[in-house]
């Protein structure tokens, strides 16, 4: 296995009884890449992602994340990744600042580092006016950006985003993708699952999962050429319908 | 350790900002102990009664004076004939009527026997029973006074004495019970709700993906409630000592140790519930139906276990509260130590370990 890949999976499999939720998937993700992980509901995206972020043990196959083994070195993996779920899991009854310092704290950042980072982050997101307000009262788009920034707080090598744009309007989604580009530009690898096929176009490479298997993996441009369509939507429908 | 402190701080923010949990944590214990101590009581005080004295002689006067002098009864009405009895009962204010037969004093001296009737309003059967017992005891005392000096052969007078709670104060009964219920409520229900809230919000997932280990997450969630439960237990004991004058005959330190054990038992139950329940609502329902109801009904707090049907008696054995109430009563009222309470303590300890084992197993399964 080459070392400039930050995620490597070989025949990674997860069985629930006889059912293979994830069936021998193999793929590599390069450092600094925006990797789109697509698939219909129930295709096995979330299960695959859970194995990579160290909260579910694979049934068989091999995988490393940030150079650490998903069987034995989950603690090291957790220190090196950021994670944001579709629920933008922030604490509604804590203020913006408190949320930042809480998440900074559990990743072991020093008080000083937390202070500096939260100051910078609040400035970047233009949240000065609400930095001492409870997160529960913020608009969804703000929460989403805050959640993403919090996931990046400890400068992880890889950020896993599980359907990060669910339920927000197109303008906010657009702004959110700009943040993703910015992070990728700084060298952070982005591993993102999404339902929105227009978002798939923003990715450097995408994989499409159908029934636990990766059926296609390439750049959006080449996938469209291969399936002779103009949109990723068509590519997805062709694959998903078999 | 630094991570842990940050985590605990966050938990206190949650508790402090949620008015409902603040109320449950601090309002409930005080309200409950005061309610049970003052309002809900088995004792009777200042009950209104009426007298129908058809004899009107020295002896009946003396008896009536004795009753009027006791703090249990207020004589508010003196009736003239039997037809009035029904009327006063119907008005509802008067709970009992004491009716002396004609020539009461004369009958005692001549026939060595006189009749007095106690009529009680049994729409509240417990109360009627208690009133009747109180009046009977006053009459018995009178009888002894009359007999004193007179020749009365072969009289057996049973003397019962209530030990540990000589005045039969119901607050002695309720303090251990309320303490148990409160600790169960705060520890089990509040923790299970606060853990399932993290699941519901999706923050639990984030915590599990963070470098925090699962046991650190749970310990961080549970710790504030240990602290608050200890404060609650202290408040209840202080209230009962200073407001209700319940004695603590045994060692306060031992009481504190046993309370911490029971708090941990309840916390573990709370964790167990949170591994089963997916939402806060479910967690609350399971805590209320599965823990609070048995704790109140089957622990011997309100209803004596010995008078329950056998199957319920068997079930009561698996309720931690039953054993804790025995322990608290033992320490507070009887003043006994570990020597006499070893069995109960070990049972609680064993229960805690068993529940902990199940929770750890369940928690792992859920992570998969």
TrEMBL record, chain B:
The keyword Transmembrane applies. Residues 116-366 form the ABC transmembrane type-2 domain. This is Transport permease protein. The chain crosses the membrane at residues 21-40, 171-195, 222-244, 250-273, 285-303, 323-356. The keyword Cell membrane applies. InterPro entries: ABC-2_transporter_component, ABC2_TM, ABC2_TM_bact-type, ABC_2_transport. GO terms for molecular function: ABC-type transporter activity. It is a multi-pass membrane protein. GO terms for cellular component: ATP-binding cassette (ABC) transporter complex. Its main location: membrane. It is found in: Cell membrane. Belongs to the ABC-2 integral membrane protein family. Keywords: Cell membrane, Membrane, Transmembrane, Transmembrane helix, Transport.
């Amino acid at each position: 296995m080459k070392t400039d890949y930050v995620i490597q999976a070989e025949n990674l499999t997860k069985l629930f009884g006889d059912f293979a939720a994830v069936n021998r998937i193999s793929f590599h993700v390069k450092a600094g890449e925006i990797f789109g992980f697509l698939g219909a509901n129930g295709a096995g995206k979330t299960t695959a992602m859970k194995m990579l972020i160290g909260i579910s043990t694979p049934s068989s196959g091999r995988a490393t994340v940030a150079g650490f083994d998903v069987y034995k070195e989950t603690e090291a993996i957790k220190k090196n990744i950021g994670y944001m779920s579709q629920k933008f899991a922030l604490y509604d009854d804590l203020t913006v600042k408190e949320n930042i310092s809480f998440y900074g704290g559990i990743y072991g950042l020093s008080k000083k580092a937390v202070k500096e980072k939260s100051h910078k982050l609040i400035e970047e997101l233009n949240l000065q006016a609400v930095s001492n307000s409870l997160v529960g009262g913020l608009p969804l788009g703000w929460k989403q950006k805050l959640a993403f920034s919090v996931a990046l707080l400890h400068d992880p090598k890889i950020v896993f985003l599980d359907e990060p744009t669910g339920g927000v309007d197109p303008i906010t989604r657009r702004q959110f993708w700009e943040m993703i580009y910015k992070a990728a530009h700084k060298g952070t690898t982005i591993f993102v699952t999404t339902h929105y096929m227009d978002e798939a176009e923003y990715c450097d490479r995408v994989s499409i999962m159908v029934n636990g298997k990766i059926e296609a993996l390439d750049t959006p441009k080449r996938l469209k050429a291969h399936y002779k369509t103009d949109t990723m939507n068509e590519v997805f429908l062709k694959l998903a319908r078999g | 350790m630094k991570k842990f402190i940050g985590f605990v701080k966050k938990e206190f923010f949650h508790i402090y900002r949620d008015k409902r949990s603040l109320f449950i944590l601090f309002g409930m214990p005080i309200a409950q102990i005061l309610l049970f101590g003052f309002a809900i009581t088995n004792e009777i005080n200042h009950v209104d009664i009426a007298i129908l004295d058809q004899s009107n002689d020295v002896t009946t006067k003396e008896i009536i004076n004795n009753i009027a002098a006791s703090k249990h009864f207020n004589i508010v009405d003196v009736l003239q004939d039997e037809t009035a009895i029904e009327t006063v009962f119907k008005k509802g204010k008067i709970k009992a009527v004491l009716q002396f037969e004609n020539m009461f004093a004369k009958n005692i001296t001549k026939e060595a026997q006189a009749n007095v009737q106690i009529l009680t309003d049994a729409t509240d059967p417990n109360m009627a029973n208690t009133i009747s017992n109180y009046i009977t005891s006053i009459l018995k005392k009178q009888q002894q006074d009359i007999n004193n000096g007179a020749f009365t052969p072969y009289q057996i007078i049973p003397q019962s004495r209530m030990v540990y709670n000589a005045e039969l104060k119901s607050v002695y009964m309720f303090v251990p019970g309320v303490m148990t219920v409160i600790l169960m409520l705060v520890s089990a229900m509040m923790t299970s709700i606060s853990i399932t809230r993290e699941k519901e919000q999706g923050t639990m997932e984030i915590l599990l993906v963070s470098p925090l280990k699962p046991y650190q997450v749970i310990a961080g969630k549970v710790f504030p409630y240990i602290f608050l439960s200890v404060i609650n237990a202290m408040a209840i004991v202080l209230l009962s000592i200073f407001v209700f004058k319940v004695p603590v005959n045994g060692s306060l330190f031992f009481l504190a140790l046993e309370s911490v054990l029971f708090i941990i038992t309840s916390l573990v139950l709370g964790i167990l519930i949170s591994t089963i329940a997916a939402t806060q609502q479910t967690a609350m329902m399971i805590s209320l139906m599965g823990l609070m109801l048995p704790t109140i009904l089957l622990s011997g707090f309100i209803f004596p276990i010995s008078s329950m049907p056998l199957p319920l008696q068997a079930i009561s054995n698996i309720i931690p509260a039953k054993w804790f109430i025995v322990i608290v009563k033992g320490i507070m009222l009887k003043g006994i130590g570990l020597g006499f309470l070893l069995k109960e303590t070990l049972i609680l300890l064993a229960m805690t370990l068993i529940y902990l084992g199940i929770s750890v197993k369940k928690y792992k399964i859920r992570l998969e």
